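Tokens for chain A. Residues wanted.
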């Protein structure tokens, strides 16, 4: 099967089924891509949970900021983790997500961000992985 077609089907399912998204590396700076993507997701009706240790305890886009994925309450229902970090940070984020987010279904890395070993680890745990793509670009094709 064509990998791009399979990934498109995965994205369409993510758009339909996901409601709660933790955004790792979400910046309070409106000029940053992470802020724009998170704002877009909120506007589409998704609950965004900001994760940024430098801003923990504050709010971004009206939501309380958590220092880490582990700091998010288990009952928050995080289904997707959108990663705005360098590729070398992805493995740690994936490990933390797998250990602390019981409803996790999707790991998503932004354009230019990829870690194939971490992606395979997540896939082996039954998680859908989308790498090197942006939900603000991909979601509208399936909404």
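Reply:
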């Amino acid at each position: 099967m064509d990998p791009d077609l399979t990934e498109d089907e995965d994205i369409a399912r993510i758009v339909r089924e996901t409601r709660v998204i933790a955004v790792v590396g979400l910046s309070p700076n409106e000029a940053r891509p992470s802020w724009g993507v998170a704002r877009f997701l909120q506007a589409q009706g998704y609950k965004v949970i900001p994760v940024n240790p430098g801003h923990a305890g504050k709010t971004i886009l009206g939501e309380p900021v958590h220092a880490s994925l582990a700091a998010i309450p288990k009952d928050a229902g995080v289904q997707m983790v959108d990663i705005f970090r360098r590729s070398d940070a992805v493995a740690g984020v994936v490990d933390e997500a797998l250990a602390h987010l019981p409803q996790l279904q999707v790991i998503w890395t932004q354009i230019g961000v990829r870690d194939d070993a971490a992606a395979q680890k997540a896939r082996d745990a039954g998680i859908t992985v989308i790498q090197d793509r942006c939900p603000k670009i991909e979601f509208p094709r399936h909404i």
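The longest strand covers residues 20-24. The first helix runs from residue 3 to 17.
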